[in-house]
Amino acid sequence: MPTPVPGTAPVTAAAGGSGPRLPAARTGLGSIDTAVHLGFAVLLVASLVRYVMRHSPADNLLVLGLAAVACLLYAVVAVLARRGRPGAPWMFALVAVWAVLVVAAPSFAWCSFALFFLSRSALAGAAAYAAAGITAAATAAGLFRMSAGTDLAMLLGPLAVGAMLTLIYDRIQQDAEEQRRLHAEVSVAQEQLAASERRAGTIAERERVSREIHDTVTQGLASSLLLLEAAGRAWPSDAARTGLREATVLLRGNLSETRSLVHELASPGLDGCPLPEALLLAARQYVPAARLLVTGEPRPVPPEVRHALLRVMQSAASNIRLHASAAGVAVTLGFLPEAVTLDIYDDGAGFDPAAAAPPSDAGGYGLRAMRQRVEQLGGVFSVQSAAGEGTIVAAQLPLPSAGRGTPGTAGVQA
Asked: What pTM does this model have?
């Protein structure tokens, strides 16, 4: 008897049957179910033809009735399994009818493979094992009866195939569970990564806004306060009135800067003019005597580079006004073939950069903010100073290559 041979086909179906049990995607569910159900229909028709051709019409009535009932119950269980609804009573009714049918007509033993897979997809746990075991035992009993109790292989073959398919199906289910677990872990890791990126973005935005506030509002308010304090000490002299006017101008500029921070953190009054003129205006807001020298061939720079240079200029000029007591300030803007440089020199009191106070409520954010601005754009920032020898603040930012430039400009920064 060829019982072991057709068993190879259901093994493949079982392997494919793991697809419907995968999470979310339920890979290949429709096609696998269709293949199993079509296989059941084809095997049922073939078994009916074989039985009718080998038995008398009187014997056919009971078998045909059992086959019709089994076919109806199979359809009910398949629909319930498809919809994810419990169908244990229907499945066990199908197994009971099928057991009677396969014992009475062993020709229908071939359909047992479809019932095995249906029981494993419709049931879970002990109920699935029980239904599959009953199906295998009934098939073994029917085939053993057909051999008149003389062929032991007909008894052991279906049981061995059932045990083998059960082990294979369990392994497939374990792999599917492991895949679900890994999928869940990956989803959690992706959510955690997204949350970390959001936190990092929030921190970066806070740093950016803090630099904007420091380089505009804070520096302007500090300079205005210095002017007002000096005017208060000299009141009512002309120098005091001049200080008040300068403080008023700075405060008006501060108000404009604050409004610009609310509206996209732009640089009001400085975006509509060429970069050298904008830098000179930014410097003279705090140091009216500042001078500007341009080296190299001027050309447009990216908006983010322009913005960083303006903020570095504002912060450095404010520091000069507040701390340097400088008589002269020289600003050099250099255009290199692949970079733009900004050097700000003052002949003031100078300081030791290594001994500079760390940022605190009293200040100290200027140099750090300037360095962060420049380095975030891939540039280089440096401060050279010593007590009594003035200070040089230098920044170099990369530019897209323009294929042109003045070779000698590299020496300007040095």
From this structure: 0.40
